[in-house]
Backbone:
């Protein structure tokens, strides 16, 4: 049975506060801000968090991208019971303990969307709709078109979040970076390396962890990246077999079925398992998740619902999807990275790691949303795709003094294993993932 953090007659909180990474206040102070229901006050919370509080008949929930939060309204003889957790199966297990499992369906659970204060009135049948108030509204196009200035502002914001994180963890603990040699994981690794030197702390506590299945291309790229900077001693490659990649296990862990997320999470889950087997006591991992969303660096041609105009005209599209007030918004899963970050959170948590994704934090996203994308790209796809490497490379140079190599973009799942072998493991049709997921609760 999942750990009960708070229990009232009509409310159960299963969210573990120890998984929060709040940098500028205590957990209790952050809870008080969420309990106020005031979005401006909630925006003051820095870091990753999922917080739920109850005031009279109102429950207030708020979360950042880095932590999922779900809820389910069950029925008791005495009235409604709101159950809040970070996993679907935690809700399911708790309902089984209460003998309420017949009410449960996974698609009846709801995910609180990131960047909102969600208020739910626990008042019984009929259940009221939640009310969402945005606490994070970054100003768009506030930066000028100077790429050097943009890069320094963007990577500088990421560096400041990394420093807060380093301040929050023990100074003797080792740090692993899930590393492909790509732009995002590479910039996070170099930023942490430079910060440790600036702080007078030993960079030897840092490792770059790379997964390779049958000599996949990421291992070669990771070697080339670090060799070019004289930092190859930090690289640790974990070899795996094709049989180690189990998408069904991944679906059970991430509780989702979106194809790209299942594929990426399968690689992350395998790497986390390999690290745990080699290092039983390792705790802290960092990664570059969120960098693609921030710089709008996804191939638009792969998604028939998108055009470059929809991508550049809709704020936070890759972070939140179409928005909580749109018909395409999933109540069960939220949207965008608000949904998709579970590919990182759940996989690292599965093996007892505490992950950190600095690119997902509002203070970093705020800078990226201020980039004048339309002015810099003139609505051209290739200009948009090239922008990320240019911005981050300049920013890393300005912040760390290091010349970061930039390689052509490649998804993590296509870097771990050769594409021909990849197709042996993963179905082409997402419906197979969806069917397997729904079969878990029959």
Residues:
């Amino acid at each position: 049975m999942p750990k009960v953090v708070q229990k009232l007659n009509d409310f159960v909180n299963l969210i573990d506060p120890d998984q929060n990474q709040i940098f500028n206040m205590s957990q209790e102070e952050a809870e008080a801000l969420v309990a106020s229901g005031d979005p401006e006050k909630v925006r003051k919370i820095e870091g990753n968090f999922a917080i739920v509080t109850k005031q009279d008949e109102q429950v207030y929930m708020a979360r950042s991208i880095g932590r999922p939060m779900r809820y389910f309204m069950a029925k008791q003889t005495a009235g409604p019971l709101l159950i809040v957790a970070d996993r679907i199966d935690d809700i399911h297990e708790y309902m089984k303990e209460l003998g309420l499992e017949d009410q449960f369906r996974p698609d009846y659970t709801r995910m609180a969307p990131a960047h909102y204060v969600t208020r739910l009135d626990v008042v019984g049948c009929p259940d009221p709709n939640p009310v969402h108030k945005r606490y994070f509204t970054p100003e768009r196009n506030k930066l000028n078109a100077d790429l050097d200035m943009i890069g320094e502002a963007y990577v500088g914001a990421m560096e400041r979040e990394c420093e807060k994180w380093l301040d929050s963890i023990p100074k003797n603990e080792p740090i692993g970076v899930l590393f492909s040699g790509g732009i995002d994981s590479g910039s996070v690794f170099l930023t942490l390396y430079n910060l440790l030197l600036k702080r007078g702390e030993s960079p030897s506590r840092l490792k770059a962890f790379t997964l390779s299945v049958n000599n996949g291309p990421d291992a070669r790229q990771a070697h080339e990246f670090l060799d070019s900077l004289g930092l190859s001693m930090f690289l640790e490659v974990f070899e795996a077999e094709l049989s180690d990649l189990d998408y069904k296990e991944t679906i059970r862990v991430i509780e989702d079925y979106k194809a790209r997320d299942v594929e990426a999470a399968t690689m992350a889950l395998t790497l986390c398992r390999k690290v745990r087997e080699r290092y039983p006591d390792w705790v802290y991992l960092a990664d570059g998740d969120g960098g693609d969303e921030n710089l709008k660096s996804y191939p638009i041609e792969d998604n028939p619902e998108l055009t470059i105009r929809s991508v550049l005209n809709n704020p936070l599209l890759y972070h939140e999807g179409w928005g909580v007030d749109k018909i395409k918004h999933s109540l069960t899963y939220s949207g965008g990275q608000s949904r998709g970050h579970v590919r990182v959170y759940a996989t690292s948590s599965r093996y007892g790691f505490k992950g950190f994704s600095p690119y997902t934090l509002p203070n970093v996203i705020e800078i990226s949303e201020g980039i004048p994308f339309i002015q810099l790209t003139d609505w051209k796809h290739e200009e948009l795709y090239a922008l990320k490497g240019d911005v981050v490379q300049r920013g890393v140079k300005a912040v760390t003094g290091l010349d970061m190599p930039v390689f052509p973009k490649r998804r993590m799942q296509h870097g771990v294993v050769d594409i021909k072998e990849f197709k042996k493991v993963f179905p082409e049709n997402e419906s197979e993932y969806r069917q397997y997921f729904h079969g878990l609760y029959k």
In short: DSSP finds 19 helices and 16 strands in the chain. The radius of gyration is 21 Å. The longest helix spans residues 147-168.
